[in-house]
Amino acid sequence: LDLKSRIDKGFFSADGVWICYRRNYFQIKILFNLIEDGKDLSESINFPNSLDDIYVKLPDKGMCKILNFYVGIDSIITGSKDKVEIVQHTAKREKGEQKKPGIKLIFPGGDLSSYNYSLEQNTIVLYERLQFRKATCNNGKRTTFQQYYSIIINLYGMLVDGKKVRIGYIESSPLVVRGRSPGHY
């Protein structure tokens, strides 16, 4: 599996660290491909009609047939398993519903390098209007320990029994989430 993502909007780099402000929106694009012996199999398989031949080996169940693939996002405090809440806002500008981003169906074969990629084919999944619920501790104060967050992109496979199991993931570089922009004050 070749799982990739790109975070757009909201982040900037300072002193080699990625930083964003808690109130700023960001978005994530996710894709994955099936690779065997360095060759991308996604181009030669007709999805979603050809998922009959996709199996994954699970430690507790052995070889299991995959019916569909899904992706989801999480966030943790870097170096721990403690979750950090990410919320997704509605497209409206007024204060609308905030929800945890759910998992979405995805098919292999996406390409972020192409300018004209299609979200309708489900080869690239887009999460828009995301925010961290809380800022990291410290945020530049020299007297305390700087905390970092990491975004986790999860790839799930739906088994024949309907259960979704995580079959892969990638983790972002450590991120600093500041409370408010200095220009706000």
From TrEMBL:
<dbReference type="GO" id="GO:0003700">
    <property type="term" value="F:DNA-binding transcription factor activity"/>
</dbReference>
<feature type="DNA-binding region" description="NDT80">
    <location>
        <begin position="1"/>
        <end position="185"/>
    </location>
</feature>
<dbReference type="GO" id="GO:0045944">
    <property type="term" value="P:positive regulation of transcription by RNA polymerase II"/>
</dbReference>
<dbReference type="GO" id="GO:0003677">
    <property type="term" value="F:DNA binding"/>
</dbReference>
<dbReference type="Pfam" id="PF05224">
    <property type="entry name" value="NDT80_PhoG"/>
</dbReference>
<protein>
    <submittedName>
        <fullName>p53-like transcription factor</fullName>
    </submittedName>
</protein>
<dbReference type="GO" id="GO:0051321">
    <property type="term" value="P:meiotic cell cycle"/>
</dbReference>
<keyword id="KW-0238">DNA-binding</keyword>
<dbReference type="InterPro" id="IPR008967">
    <property type="entry name" value="p53-like_TF_DNA-bd_sf"/>
</dbReference>
<dbReference type="GO" id="GO:0000228">
    <property type="term" value="C:nuclear chromosome"/>
</dbReference>
<dbReference type="InterPro" id="IPR024061">
    <property type="entry name" value="NDT80_DNA-bd_dom"/>
</dbReference>
<feature type="domain" description="NDT80">
    <location>
        <begin position="1"/>
        <end position="185"/>
    </location>
</feature>
<dbReference type="InterPro" id="IPR037141">
    <property type="entry name" value="NDT80_DNA-bd_dom_sf"/>
</dbReference>
<dbReference type="InterPro" id="IPR052605">
    <property type="entry name" value="Fungal_trans_regulator"/>
</dbReference>
